[in-house]
Amino acid sequence: MYLISPIDLIPDFIPVLGYADDALVVAIALRFATRRAGSDSITKHWPGTPAGLAAVLRLAGLPSS
After folding, report:
1. Contacts of 6 (CB under 8 A, 6+ apart)
2. Are 61 and 35 in contact (CB under 8 A)?
3. CA distance 35 to 21
4. Which strand (E) or helix (H) includes residue 41?
5. Would you say 46 and 53 are in contact if contact means Cβ atoms under 8 Å apart?
6. Sign of CA dihedral 56, 1, 3, 48
7. What are the angstrom distances between the C-alpha of 5 and each of 33, 35, 47, 57?
């Protein structure tokens, strides 16, 4: 996983755990980006359903617009 760091915390050849650390890094990066953008920007550009938007905003810890 070279998204944040060139060093993989847990090698991918270890079953389940190898990919779990990658998924965690991606989730943290997406939450950071979503929070930086703000709920107004996410709402403006959201192509999905209102229920999906509400879920994304809730997971990011942002208020619904």
Report:
1. none
2. yes
3. 21
4. helix 39-45
5. yes
6. negative
7. 17, 21, 30, 26
Cα(58)–Cα(12) distance, integer angstroms: 30
Dig out the tokens for 12 from the structure: 């991918």
Q: Kindly report, residue by residue over 40-62, the tens digit of the pLDDT.
A: 999 999 999 999 999 999 988 88
Tally: H helices and E strands in the chain? 3, 0
pLDDT, tens digit (0-9, with 9 covering 90-100), for 14-49 = 788 877 877 888 888 889 999 999 999 999 999 999
Cβ atoms 4, 29 nearer than 8 A: yes
